[in-house]
Amino acid sequence: MAFSFRSPFSFLSNDLAIDLGTAYTLVYVKGRGIVVREPSIVAMNLKTGAIEAVGKDAKNMLGRTPGNIVAIRPMKDGVIADFEHTERMLDYFIKKAHNRKLVVRPRIVICIPSQITQVEKRAVRDSAYRAKASYVAMIEEPMAAAIGAGMPITEPTGNIIVDIGGGTTDIAVISMAGIVYSRTVRVAGNEMDEAIIQFVKKKYSLLIGERTAEEIKIRLGSAYPIDDEESMEIKGRDLVDGIPKTISITSGEIREALSETVSIVIESVKQALEKTPPELAADIVDRGIVLTGGGALLRSLDKRLREETGLPVLIADDPLSSVVLGAGKMLDDFELLKRVAVE
């Protein structure tokens, strides 16, 4: 990517940083902070082709719409799966960030998973330009997350970050504003939700929706046995007789449901540690592993990771916002943006 000598981010308040996630999209406006935090979902009318709703309004329609209205997730595994609807979703969120009054086309810093293809990068950039951006810079999500979490990424020392989002888990070893090693696993929060759906289906012959699965994960999910096991009642459709049914499910059962997904994430972190140069590995022993993303909020994940790796594990202060906050800092630090932006 070619950078002009003068910063393209020259103190205008319409500049944006966007974390275009599989599950949620966050938008940061320079001088105002995070102004949009909504699900990455579009509801479309199949008869007319019109967009009925975007974001949280579209999520509220999940599983509750007539046959002619479908809820579309245009992002899959951290990248664009549906070009047209990503563009329309971006356009909606950009206008919402500016209260629908968009006089000047914004400059945008947008976050992408590490290890995505050139075709996928081009799709993200093109979608941002079609959504009326005047300039687009892209930075890798783990780098943005590390900056947002306050890690000293410009120093010649090793830092490891694990960003567990909706569609991907990004693991990166960072030193001197560069990614020394990165690994993207397409297993994250959405896989956890799907694991819960399949577990309940198999064990109780009960069909539940995505929203219910996410609620179960938040309330009962854990990666390690907890002192006070909890339970909750859930509603779904009985697959045997087809009528609605209520059952009670425990945190122990949900931990069992999530065990395979959690193990994949932990094994991926271990592999990253094995590939880390010895000098940087010594720094990581002192500094530890930093967790960000919604998956970092899974109870006792830090404890499980600490036990499996023997390293200190810290959760970022605001794990859900680390990526967009890091990208937002780039709006004020063009020199650092030049160092970390990807082509």
Explain the overall architecture.
This protein has 343 residues and is α+β, with helices and mostly antiparallel strands. The protein has 3 domains: 16-141 and 322-342, 2-Layer Sandwich (Nucleotidyltransferase, domain 5); 145-187 and 261-315, ATPase, nucleotide binding domain (Nucleotidyltransferase, domain 5), CATH 3.30.420; 189-257, Actin, Chain A, domain 4 (Alpha-Beta Complex), CATH 3.90.640.10. Helices cover 37% and strands 27% of the residues. The chain contains 11 helices and 19 strands. It has helices at 56-59, 83-97, 118-130, 141-148, 189-204, 210-220, 251-275, 278-287, 301-309, 322-330, 334-340; strands spanning 16-20, 24-29, 33-39, 42-45, 51-54, 69-72, 75-76, 79-80, 107-112, 135-140, 159-164, 169-175, 178-185, 206-207, 231-238, 244-250, 289-292, 313-315, 341-342. The strands form 5 sheets. The protein has a 6-stranded mixed beta sheet, with helices on both faces. A 5-stranded mixed beta sheet has the order 13-12-11-17-18, sandwiched between helices. Strands 5-4-6 form a 3-stranded antiparallel beta sheet. A hairpin with a 5-residue loop joins strand 15 (231-238) and strand 16 (244-250). The longest helix is centred in the C-terminal third of the chain and has 25 residues, at 251-275. It is flat and about 65 Å long. The chain starts with 15 loop residues before the first strand and ends with a strand. Residues 1-6 have low confidence and may be disordered.
